[in-house]
Each structure stands twice: as C-alpha cells, then as structure tokens.
Amino acid sequence: MPINKHSLPVLIVGQGLAGTILAHTLDQANMAFNMVDAPKTYFTSSYAAGGIFNPVTGRKLEKSWLVDELFSYLFPFYRTLEKALDISFFHPMPLFRPFANEEMKGWLLDRKEAIHNEYLRWEEEGVWIENAGWLDVECLLKCSKQYFQSKNLIKEIAINPSIDLTISVDEVHFQGQAYACVVFCEGFHAQKHNPFFGHLNFLPAKGELMKIKSVEPSQEYILNKNGFLLPLGNDGFKVGATYRWDDFSNQPSLSATLDLRNKLTSLGVNSYEEVEMSTGVRPATQDRRPLVGFHPQLPLAIFNGFGSKGVSLSPYFAQQWLAEWKGEGQINSEASIRRFYHLFST
Ligand SMILES: Cc1cc2nc3c(=O)[nH]c(=O)nc-3n(C[C@H](O)[C@H](O)[C@H](O)COP(=O)(O)OP(=O)(O)OC[C@H]3O[C@@H](n4cnc5c(N)ncnc54)[C@H](O)[C@@H]3O)c2cc1C
C-alpha cells in the first residue's frame, strides 16, 4: 500500500453511476479527489438505466444477494444525497408481481411458508414487494456533474491509461498532478481499454428500454411481469429491459423494439405512444458479482462490475471501497477483486 496515500487526492476515471456514487462517498468523508469523464460520444450504461431497486428477484421470489445490508444502507444514502444536492431523484415505490399463470401461482402458494420474507405481501393476483422503487439516474448524474464542476473537480477527458498516466510504486501522475491512487469506473469500456483490469471476468450485456406515454396503467406502482413498467409521472413510463450478449453498438435495434412491444402486451398495455428508445451496455460479470478493490502491486483500483444492479450495489460498495482504502475494513470477499489476484502477474 502507498505510504502517502492519504495526503494526495484520488483520481476517479468515469462519471457514470459508479464513479458518481464513489465520488460522493469520498466527498462526504472529506477525502480529496478529482474526476475525469469521457465526452458524451462515449456509450454508457447509466444513461439508459431504468434505475429500479428491488429486494426480491427471480421466479422464486428470493431475496437478492446481500439485500438486508444493501437496502438498509441505500435508503439513508440516497436521501442524504438528495438533501446535499437539493433535488429529488430517489423514488421509493411499491412493486407488483402478478403471478405468471395459474401453474406458477399454485407452485408459489404451495411453498408460501418457505418462500415468504419480510419484503413480500401476498394477494390473490400476485405479490407486492415493499422497499422497492427507482432512482432517476440521469437526474442524479447531471446534477452531480454540476456540483463537481462548481468545485472544479471534474474534467471532460477520455483517458488512455497506457499513455496518459505515469505510474510508480506509490503514486500516479496525470497532467502534472500526483495522485495517491487512480480508481477506474469505466463501466463496460474497461474490458477492451483498461490494460490493468481488462482481463477480469467482464461479461457485458447490452440493454434497451423504451419510453412511452399511456393513460392505461397505474402511476402508483412498478409493474413487473417478464419485464417492467415504471411510472415516471404525467402519463410517462419506461418499459424494459432487453438483454443481448452479441452486439455492443449504441444503435437501438429492431429486435429490441419488437421485444419491448411484446412485453407491453404481456403487461396488459395496449394503447400507448412510443416516445424514445434508450440503449446501454451493462458492466456485468461472469459470476454476477462486482469488481471492487485494489491492484495487488500498483496504486490503481477498480469500482465496476455492477451489472444490472448499480443502483442498489454501488452505495454500499463505495463505502466498503473507502473503508479498505483507509485501512479500516475489507471489501466483501465475493465482490473484492482479491478473488482474481492469481491473474495478476508478479
Ligand atoms: C437498459 C438498461 C436498464 C438498466 N436498468 C437498471 C435498473 O433498473 N436498475 C439498476 O440498478 N441498474 C440498471 N441498469 C444497470 C446500470 O445502468 C449499471 O449498473 C450502472 O449504471 C453502471 O454504471 P457504471 O458507472 O459502472 O458504468 P457506465 O454508466 O457505463 O459509466 C462509465 C463511465 O465511464 C466513462 N469512461 C469510460 N472510459 C473512460 C475513459 N477512458 N476515460 C474517461 N471516462 C471514461 C464513460 O464515459 C461513462 O461516463 C440498466 C442498464 C441498462 C443498459
């Protein structure tokens, strides 16, 4: 570990959701940092995200990984951030999962006692999930950018780590400034363009969603049945999302449009106006766990791999990243890149 690590700032590469959450975490802890973010032409995941947080996933209504720790942290985290930035972007909202069909209903009801957890409320037609909701990711990112700009902390640059960074054992130089550590939050771009962490187990997944206007569905809750319907207010909804592992272009595809129209039909929405498509690539991993931690030899770090759950995972793991950086704790072993230290040459 670098000896001077707390006297120099940290450089954060990427102001998607991950970089933004990490930056706010450092800011709240009064740790010095700077950020760089590539121009808008760079393709992100965050600007396409539905922003949903949901403690129960899968057909069997299981609690998602680490849910109790994540969810007790994310509510106060986002509420505190709303106050600090003086804007509303965190929208807790119930989520309704209708039973897929009579067979599934019977299967779930037969096992209700075993399946039940504190996030579920059972009804004749389906199950309500409490403590769900959505984060307006675009709003958070835009007002965070203004906040970082007002403090002169962010520059618009696409870094080429091999050329732009001068790395020694205990510090990194970038544009004449010494940094204690560079933490890469580049989303799926890391796999192709990061010479230090690109060999980790990324499995990017392209996703598309559609914004629609409709007066048919309820604005009061998120509907989730083989896809989601997320109310935005003023008859606006997001419907999503698709998954693809063979195309990483930033163009909306006809196959995704058709898939989303089918989802709308199965969600019971027949009359709607299509407003726009959003396209992004999720920084997912083969073992579905984040990539958080420190390079074993160099003053470099990573905060990435949040897949389709950046909203619920990133606040908790930003705090864990910081604790390990300060020598006050260790990142959860399933998320820490220590699990890949054997892949780094010595
Ligand atoms: C269709 C879709 C729906 C989704 N729905 C949800 C959802 O409902 N709930 C949820 O929790 N998650 C959802 N996600 C996933 C969510 O978007 C991600 O988990 C999260 O946004 C990842 O953020 P990130 O910052 O790691 O990556 P990104 O958003 O991709 O950000 C990476 C940033 O790094 C910058 N960058 C890259 N390389 C460089 C460089 N060399 N120099 C400088 N900057 C660089 C990029 O410009 C970008 O700003 C969805 C994703 C998609 C595509």
Describe it.
- With 346 residues, this protein is α+β, with helices and mostly antiparallel strands.
- It has 3 domains: 10-48 and 138-201 and 286-343, FAD/NAD(P)-binding domain; 52-135, no CATH class; 205-282, D-Amino Acid Oxidase, Chain A, domain 2, CATH 3.30.9.
- The protein contains 9 helices and 22 strands.
- Strands 8-9-7-17-18-19-16-20 form an 8-stranded mixed beta sheet, with helices on one face. It has a 6-stranded mixed beta sheet with strand order 11-2-1-15-22-21.
- A hairpin with a 5-residue loop joins strand 21 (291-294) and strand 22 (300-304).
- The longest helix is centred in the first third of the chain and has 19 residues, at 67-85.
- The chain is globular, with a radius of gyration of 21 Å.
- The two termini are 15 Å apart.
- The relative contact order is 0.19.
- The mean pLDDT is 95.
- Flavin-adenine dinucleotide binds next to helix 1, strand 2, helix 7, strand 16 and strand 20.
- It is an enzyme of class 1 (oxidoreductase).
- It comes from Aquirufa salirivi.
- Pfam families: DAO.
- This is FAD-dependent oxidoreductase.
- Residues 10-325 form the FAD dependent oxidoreductase domain.
Major sheet:
8 strands, mixed
User: Any idea of the CATH topology of the largest domain?
Assistant: FAD/NAD(P)-binding domain
pLDDT < 50 runs, ≥5 residues:
none
Report the portion of residues in β strands. Answer: 25-35%
* pLDDT averaged over residues: 95
Helix content: 25-40%
Oligomer: single chain
Ligand types: flavin-adenine dinucleotide
CATH architecture descriptor text of the largest domain:
3-Layer(bba) Sandwich
Strand order, largest beta sheet: 8-9-7-17-18-19-16-20
Which overall shape is indicated by the principal axes computed on the Cα atoms?
Answer: globular
Number of domains: 3
Report how far apart the termini are.
Answer: 15 Å
What is the number of helices? Answer: 9
CATH homologous superfamily descriptor of the largest domain: FAD/NAD(P)-binding domain
Radius of gyration from the alpha-carbon trace, in angstroms:
21 Å
**Overall number of strands:** 22
Reading off the top of the CATH hierarchy, the class of the largest domain is best stated as: Alpha Beta
Helix/strand-derived class? alpha+beta
